[in-house]
Design a protein that fits this description.
Strand 2 (about 55-60) and strand 3 form a beta hairpin. The protein starts with a helix and ends in a 5-residue tail after the last strand. It contains two helices and five strands; from the N terminus they run H-E-H-E-E-E-E. Helix content is about 20%, strand content about 20%. Strands 1, 2, 3, 4 and 5 form a five-stranded antiparallel β-sheet that branches. The chain has one domain (about 5-85). The mean pLDDT is about 95. The protein is an alpha+beta fold and about 90 residues long.
Amino acid sequence: MAIDKDLLAILCCPETKQPVSLADEGLIQRLNEAISRGGLLNRGKQGVTQRVDGGLVRADAKIFYPIRENIPVMLIDEGILLEQIG
C-alpha cells in the first residue's frame, strides 16, 4: 500500500496528535488473520469484519488506523487496539 509522502507527513493520531507511519506487511497479515478468526474490535466496540489492505500505526504502536480504498480512516472509533493481536 502506497500513500503520498506529503500526506503521511501531515497525518497524526486524532486523539493524541502523535505521528503515524505506514504499517508493515507483517502487521497487515497478523491483523487479517485476527479478522478472519473473528472477535477483533475497533475502539467503537464494533466487530472488524473487512480485511485491510494497509493502514497507519500510531508512534507508540498501540493503535492501527485502516486505509480503505486508498483513504486513511483517521477516526478514533475506527482505530484498532493492537494489543488484541499480541
